[in-house]
Amino acid sequence: MNLNYGKLKKGSLRCNNLGLDVLKNLDESLLTNLPPFKNLNTVQIREILDIATPVRIDLGKAVFDQGEVAQKFFLLLDGHIRVIKTTPDGEQVIALHITSGQLFGIAAGLGKTTYPATAIAADECLVLSWSNTQWTKFIAAYPGFSTEVYKIVGERLDEMNNRIVEMATQQVEQRVACVLLRLITQAGKKVPDGVEIDFPITRQNISEMTGTTLHTVSRLLSAWEKSGIVASKRSKVTVTQPHKLVLLSGASA
Description:
Layout: H1 20-23, H2 29-32, H3 42-50, E1 53-57, E2 62-64, E3 72-78, E4 80-86, E5 92-99, E6 103-104, E7 118-121, E8 125-131, H4 135-141, H5 145-169, H6 172-187, E9 188-191, E10 194-197, H7 203-210, H8 214-226, E11 230-233, E12 236-239, H9 242-249
Antiparallel strand pairs: 1-8, 2-7, 3-6, 3-8, 4-5, 4-7, 9-10, 10-12, 11-12
Helix pairs in contact: 6-7, 6-9, 7-8
């Protein structure tokens, strides 16, 4: 998703807390086509922007941690967020990736007082945040807000349910293929060699998404690179032959 920031360029942001003066430079058009704001008029969107706090999150930094008291909710304007769940025995599982234009950290909408997972910037991110005290006000004041929010929640639950089914029924090769296909669908960028996942992702990340070992993921990706199915370089993965990856996933081509 490419956003037009006008005078505000992500590369020019030098501090995490940008301040209200910079916020005024954010145009209402940033939210016009984004669920759950797409049914709002420009006056309402201006109201929302005027009470938001913009924050730049550097690669690898946490927006919030699992178990932290939920005081804010967020809209990802640019970048990608990796949602990580830590099990009681300390194992980390990547549950979701959030792409630009989506809300996240919506504990208030789920009736929770703490964040159920950790949100990490998968690349440099620009987000807007609001106090949780605004959540019920948004629902009451802006028609369609709650409808769109719960549609998003439903889609994420569907994705996580699909992941559970994959873990229970598929071989490791199929799971890894499914993850790569999902990522190029959600965050793929066309490049001369194929479709590149548009944020840094490591083999360790893929192992955490598929419930397998780093060794197994490395072995599979190395074999697929030799076969010309994928290419990887400096934490960037490109699927060069998506149709072959579809066959490896067990789906119909």
